[in-house]
């Protein structure tokens, strides 16, 4: 067993995973990659099910848990269950919690979401990596085609980016899964993928980003963790977090980042065209 103290939060877990995953033996690295992409499954799956998903024996998965500082799988699963139960209960529970605190009136909720949005925007302004943002704008401005993908909570951001690019006459494809169609084969040499996903992360988004990376295309990722599953695509990572209200998360900071990214790409493309 590792002599490290077991992580007590998902943030600590992700930080440690990012630190040591590249030095792990092959089988344990498979476990690390699978866990990073499927954090939502750890709390509700057995070690046998997770081992099959990772393509390893249960004993290897147990060694992975110990390397991360846990006594075994049960202790690691307990941390995941406590983390998700506290942070992201189901919607019925979130509403019940709001009613219990007396904060479910429209005026109170509006004030809470406005304040959460303000705090999220202030945090974005002080934490965004401006150098990475500049690099993202540069690669997107030079792309023949921009492919945008984001599902569930990330879908409004993806659809807005596609809309903004269309209005600026920038070639873009929204990968939305309508009709269960998968236009990944439309990705050509030089194209860039914008992948938007947040915990517990959308497998469809991760798969498309990984597919593009394997082709040699660049990926720009908008996510809530620098140590999440998008890191293995060598993406230009733009991290953004949202302050929640009763575990409901708005998209104030994320949409602002998306607007800034789209407008910057449009302005950069105009400069490139004028310079030719």
Automatic annotation (TrEMBL):
Which stretches make up the HTH rpiR-type domain? 11-87
Tell me yes or no: is NADP among this UniProt entry's keywords. no
Check the record and name the SUPFAM superfamilies matching this protein.
Homeodomain-like (SSF46689), SIS domain (SSF53697)
Indicate yes or no for the key word Mitochondrion. no
Domain of life assignment: Bacteria
- Keywords assigned by UniProt, alphabetized: DNA-binding, Membrane, Transcription, Transcription regulation, Transmembrane, Transmembrane helix
> Tell me, what is an example of a GO biological process annotation in this record?
carbohydrate derivative metabolic process
Q: Which residues cross the membrane?
A: 247-267
**Signal peptide location in the record?**
none
Q: Which InterPro entries match?
A: Homeodomain-like_sf, HTH_RpiR, RpiR-like, RpiR-like_SIS, SIS_dom, SIS_dom_sf, WH-like_DNA-bd_sf
Q: Name all SIS domain ranges.
A: 136-272
The name this protein goes by in its record = RpiR family transcriptional regulator
The species this protein was found in: Thalassospira tepidiphila MCCC 1A03514
């Amino acid at each position: 067993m590792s002599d490290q103290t077991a992580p007590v939060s998902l943030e600590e877990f992700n930080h440690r995973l990012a630190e040591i995953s590249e030095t792990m033996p092959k089988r344990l690295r498979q476990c690390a990659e699978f866990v990073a992409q499927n954090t939502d499954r750890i709390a509700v799956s057995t070690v046998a099910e997770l081992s099959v998903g990772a393509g390893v024996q249960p004993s290897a998965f147990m060694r992975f848990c110990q390397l991360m500082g846990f006594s075994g799988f049960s202790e690691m699963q307990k941390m995941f269950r406590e983390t998700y139960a506290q942070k992201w209960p189901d919607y019925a529970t979130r509403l019940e919690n709001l009613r219990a605190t007396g904060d479910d009136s429209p005026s109170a909720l509006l004030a809470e979401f406005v304040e959460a949005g303000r705090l999220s925007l202030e945090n974005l302004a002080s934490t965004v990596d401006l150098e990475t943002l500049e690099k993202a704008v540069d690669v997107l401005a030079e792309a023949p085609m921009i492919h945008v993908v984001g599902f569930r909570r990330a879908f409004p951001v993806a659809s807005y980016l596609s809309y903004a690019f269309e209005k600026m006459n920038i070639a873009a494809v929204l990968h939305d899964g309508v009709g269960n169609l998968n236009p990944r084969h439309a990705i050509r040499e030089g194209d860039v993928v914008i992948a938007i996903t947040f915990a517990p992360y959308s497998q469809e988004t991760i798969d498309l980003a990984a597919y593009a990376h394997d082709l040699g295309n660049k990926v720009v990722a908008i996510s809530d963790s620098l140590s999440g599953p998008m890191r293995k695509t060598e993406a230009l990572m733009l991290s953004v977090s949202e302050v929640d209200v009763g575990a409901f998360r708005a998209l104030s900071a994320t949409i602002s980042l998306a607007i800034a990214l789209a407008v910057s790409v449009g302005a950069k493309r105009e400069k490139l065209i004028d310079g030719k």
